[in-house]
Amino acid sequence: MAEEDLLIANDVYLKSGMHIGTKFKTKDMEKFIYKTRVDGLSVMNVKLIDERIRVAANLLSSYNPEDIMVLSRRENGWKGIKLFSKCTGAKAFAGRYPPGILTNANLENYTETKILVVTDAWPDRNAVLDALKVGIPVIALSDTNNQTNGLDLIVPCNNKGKKSLSLVFYLLAREYLLKKDIIQSEENMPIKLDDFLSDD
Length: 200
Known about the structure:
By secondary structure, the chain is an alpha/beta fold. It contains six helices and seven strands. It has one domain (3-197): Glucose-6-phosphate isomerase like protein, domain 1 (Rossmann fold). Strands 4-3-5-6-7 form a five-stranded parallel β-sheet, with helices on both faces. A two-stranded antiparallel sheet has the order 1-2. Helix 4 (125-134) links the parallel strand 5 (115-118) and strand 6 (138-142). The N and C termini lie far apart (33 Å).
């Protein structure tokens, strides 16, 4: 895939560390691994990451923003999901997910959702299990050590790094807004890439 065919310049992907996996790999994630470095870390294929972000954005664009929930128990994902929510109007849930908010209409914080995006299916497993109970599709950002059982769509990436997660959510927000005809180009993004990737 030529550089111009990627959603964003290859060096932006590389600088975010999105392609750097862990020293562990599951059978489910092997197909996304390009090579293993001398230090044992797996390196994911940027082209496949890019393709899966496109597929995820396409899927999300078939939903209204109020029907989408993005979720991250891991603190490194909080900035990305909050800015995604601010750009798109989707619901964001940062922190520990209380079981039942997707399944129990009697709970005060019950939330009706039609699709769920999690930053890591393991720490976010309570939400994934609830989504499975009610038949909500789940998109999961998945590192080389993730299991993928019960997930509808895997987006391979470094799902532990703050910059990597922020870049994924920037691209998902941008592509969602473009596909919904809410913006006409990247210049119209309500929150810029630098703000997603800044260290604050």
